[in-house]
From TrEMBL:
<dbReference type="Pfam" id="PF00106">
    <property type="entry name" value="adh_short"/>
</dbReference>
<dbReference type="InterPro" id="IPR057326">
    <property type="entry name" value="KR_dom"/>
</dbReference>
<protein>
    <submittedName>
        <fullName>Beta-ketoacyl-ACP reductase</fullName>
        <ecNumber>1.1.1.36</ecNumber>
    </submittedName>
</protein>
<dbReference type="GO" id="GO:0032787">
    <property type="term" value="P:monocarboxylic acid metabolic process"/>
</dbReference>
<dbReference type="InterPro" id="IPR050259">
    <property type="entry name" value="SDR"/>
</dbReference>
<dbReference type="InterPro" id="IPR036291">
    <property type="entry name" value="NAD(P)-bd_dom_sf"/>
</dbReference>
<dbReference type="GO" id="GO:0018454">
    <property type="term" value="F:acetoacetyl-CoA reductase activity"/>
</dbReference>
<keyword id="KW-0560">Oxidoreductase</keyword>
<feature type="domain" description="Ketoreductase">
    <location>
        <begin position="3"/>
        <end position="186"/>
    </location>
</feature>
<dbReference type="InterPro" id="IPR020904">
    <property type="entry name" value="Sc_DH/Rdtase_CS"/>
</dbReference>
<comment type="similarity">
    <text>Belongs to the short-chain dehydrogenases/reductases (SDR) family.</text>
</comment>
<dbReference type="InterPro" id="IPR002347">
    <property type="entry name" value="SDR_fam"/>
</dbReference>
Length: 244
């Protein structure tokens, strides 16, 4: 039977690369998006040469717990999810002294708190089937911290603690939980960094280039195809910018 993957934020920068890689490997992809219109979604499918038969869309706001619960309950009634990739994430960069509480809350809510509503029903279903691969997308900045990202780094570090704990709980149930920590990758999120700051960042990356989307996708596929010995791990994909 065809395997399936659910990818949150699947139409975003890293999300799109993940969807393409998994579909090319023969997976069916369930893609969550924040209520984007059909014109956007049709264009996105066409631009990425994805057929509707390999992709299903799940419009939901990750911060709306009721909506997430309803959508997932309906989905899990008819489908089995083999791989979950918690990829959705936002930034609201500011030095901490200038940060307002909305910048704090929005990033913690979307990047960390939403993991509860998405992961719990899917993990329960995976346990029932005795198989699952949960991949949570953290960041280099959750490991090393980053000037201007107290909110984002806190959420991304939180993802790692969550994953290590859940990995222990599900280790005997056929469900692995791992983390990918991408470095600076060419996505709209990174493109929006001021040019002089981005140039400085690139200068500090040993490979001297931003992380390739295809390298992130290959790492996710590797985890998805691995056995239970690979669990609780955080895999950095950052061009050597931060080694831990
Ligand atoms: N370390 C030490 N000092 C720094 C610094 C750093 N990394 N970055 C800036 N500063 C200093 C500046 O030199 C400046 O000093 P002076 O006042 O003496 O001139 C001061 O801090 C203020 O800097 P800015 O002019 O940059 O201040 P700002 O208020 O205009 O902007 C900021 C603040 C929005 C945080 C901006 O610095 C910024 O965008 N930084 C980049 C943050 C970043 O890396 N975000 C990653 C986004 S991508 C992502 O998150 C994906 C992922 O997972 C990797």
């Amino acid at each position: 039977m065809m395997k399936s993957v659910l990818i949150t934020g699947g139409t975003g920068g890293i999300g799109t690369a993940l969807v393409k890689a998994f579909v090319n490997k023969g997976y069916h992809a369930h893609v969550t998006h924040t209520h984007k219109g059909s014109e956007f979604l049709d264009n996105w499918l066409a631009e990425n040469q994805l057929g509707e038969d390999h992709v299903s869309f799940l419009p939901l706001n990750l911060n709306n717990r009721e909506e997430v619960a309803q959508q997932l309950a309906a989905l899990l009634e008819s489908s089995k999810i083999d791989v979950l990739i918690n990829n959705a994430g936002i930034t609201a960069d500011s030095t901490f002294l200038k940060m307002d509480v909305e910048q704090w809350d929005s990033v913690i809510d979307t990047n960390l708190k939403a993991l509860f509503s998405i992961t719990q029903p899917i993990a329960r279903s995976m346990v029932k089937h005795g198989y699952g691969r949960i991949i949570n997308v953290s960041s280099i900045n959750g490991l090393k911290g980053q000037f201007g990202q107290c909110n984002y780094a806190a959420a991304k570090a939180g993802i790692i603690g969550f994953s290590k704990s859940l990995a222990q709980e599900l280790a005997t149930k056929g469900v692995s939980v791992n983390v990918i920590a991408p470095g600076y990758t060419m996505t709209p999120m990174v493109e929006s960094i001021r040019e002089d700051i981005l140039d400085k960042i690139k200068g500090n990356i040993p490979t001297k280039e931003l992380v390739l989307l295809e390298d992130l996708a290959k790492t996710a596929l590797m985890i998805a195809e691995s056995g239970m010995s690979l669990t609780g791990e955080t895999i950095s994909v950052n061009g050597g910018q931060y080694m831990n």
